[in-house]
Structures are given as structure tokens and as C-alpha cells.
Amino acid sequence: MKPTRILIADACPIVREGLRSWLRERAPGSEVCAVAATGLEAVAKAAELRPDIVLIDDRMPLLDGLAAATQIKRSRRGVEILIFSAALTPQRKGRIFRSSVSGALLKSEATEELLLALEAVRRHHRFRSHALTTACAKTSRTAERTDRLTNREIEVLRLIAAEHTTKEVASKLGVSAKTIEGHRTHLFQKLKVRSAVGLTRHAIRSGLVEL
Questions:
Q1: In this predicted structure, what is the pLDDT of residue 90?
Q2: Of 92, 96, 102, 93, nearest to 131 (Cα)?
Q3: In this structure, are residues 129 and 105 in contact, taking their beta carbons and an 8 Å threshold?
Q4: What is the C-alpha to C-alpha distance for residues 184 and 187, in angstroms, rounded to an integer?
């Protein structure tokens, strides 16, 4: 049986070589056919060497992992793309899961999760790691609660998350402080939080503001 040919793309040489050695020991049915240090290099090597799987970091120089994956999929039918990242924002998770990549996992997860991911995509199955599946479930609940808000409540939420006081929010929106207090009460009830800190966390998780 022919080995599964893998292209590893990561900006860090220690990660690239560490993964190469780890796969040699833990995944005997695989073969690292090349490594790449940038997104553009990953696209070029994938076109030249035609790997079965591309394991690519989401944050690549010159061309990010998702953009590189899109180009690779266009030029190489049948290739499976597995994104791995140190961290993913809710917005980034959404983009990855709506894309044509085969799966995603976090670098902080156990090595066994990577083995499961490689086996899944080798069989042309989509893969979401345990940590990302849990995070997506939380994000879905967050999005569902956000959908219940009015446009004005979303405006108020964004301003509160940006650390504006009640008076400042009222001034920016041209309404009374009492009106803003009413919106805050409705936000607490709809989002099931009890403080401005809770509102800010929700705004970040739902992508209404960024850190």
C-alpha cells in the first residue's frame, strides 16, 4: 500500500522538523514529502509534488493558511487540507468551517488528536477536533442569543464593550442615560449575564468587537 504523502507548512523550523520526526515515529503509513515556510511556498510545493494531505498552520507569512488552502484546492483536486493553529478567533473558526478545508485542530491538543485528524482526512472525512467542536457549540449558543438583540441593543453592547460609560453611550447615541440603562437591563436578560464584564465577553465571543 502506498504511503500517504504529507506536506507540512509552518513558519517555525522547529515545528516543521518536530512534526516530520513525530510522524515518522507515530504514523508509519505516512511520508513527509516536503515542508514549507510560507503560504506561497506551500502552494508552489503542493502543485509540484501533489501530496495527499497538506498540514498547514493558519498563520503563515506571505499568504495565510486558509488563503493558501483555497489556492491549493483549486489547483490540486483530491488533496485534503488540515489547518492547525495556536489559537482561532470565533470569526476565524467560522471562516474555516465554511471553507473547503478538510479539518482543523489546535496545536495545544493532544498528539492523538492529530493522528485521528490525519486518519479522518485520509479517508476523505471532515474532521473537527474535540476542543473546536466544544468551542463551536458555545459559539452557536452565543450567536443564537445575539440574534435576539435589536439593532440599537447591538450598538449599545458594542459601546459598553469598548469601555464607554452609560453617559458616554447616551451621548454618542443621542438618547438619555435612563434609556441606555433600560437597554442594559434588556441585554442582561437576553444574554443571560449579570455585569458589564459579561456583556463584553459576549461581544468578543460573538465577533461584535475584537481584542
A1: 64
A2: 93
A3: yes
A4: 5
pTM: 0.64
DSSP assignment of 20-78 equals: HHHHHHH-TTEEEEEEESSHHHHHHHHHHH--SEEEEESS-SSS-HHHHHHHHHHHSTT
Sites in the chain below the pLDDT cut of 50 = 137, 140
**Site of grid cell 458594542:** 158
Question: Which DSSP category does 3 fall into?
Answer: P
The cell for 6 is 504529507
- All three cell numbers of 121, joined, read 482526512
**Cβ–Cβ under 8 Å, residues 134 and 88:** no
Q: What pLDDT score was predicted for residue 10? A: 96
Buried/exposed 4-21: b ≥16 CB within 10 Å, e otherwise: bbbbbbbeeeebbeebee
> Residue 151 contacts by C-beta under 8 Å, 6 or more apart in sequence?
none
The model's pLDDT over 118-148, given as tens digits with 9 standing for 90+, comes to 988 888 888 877 666 665 545 545 555 666 7
Phi-psi region of 136 (alpha: psi -120 to 50; beta: other; left: phi over 0): alpha
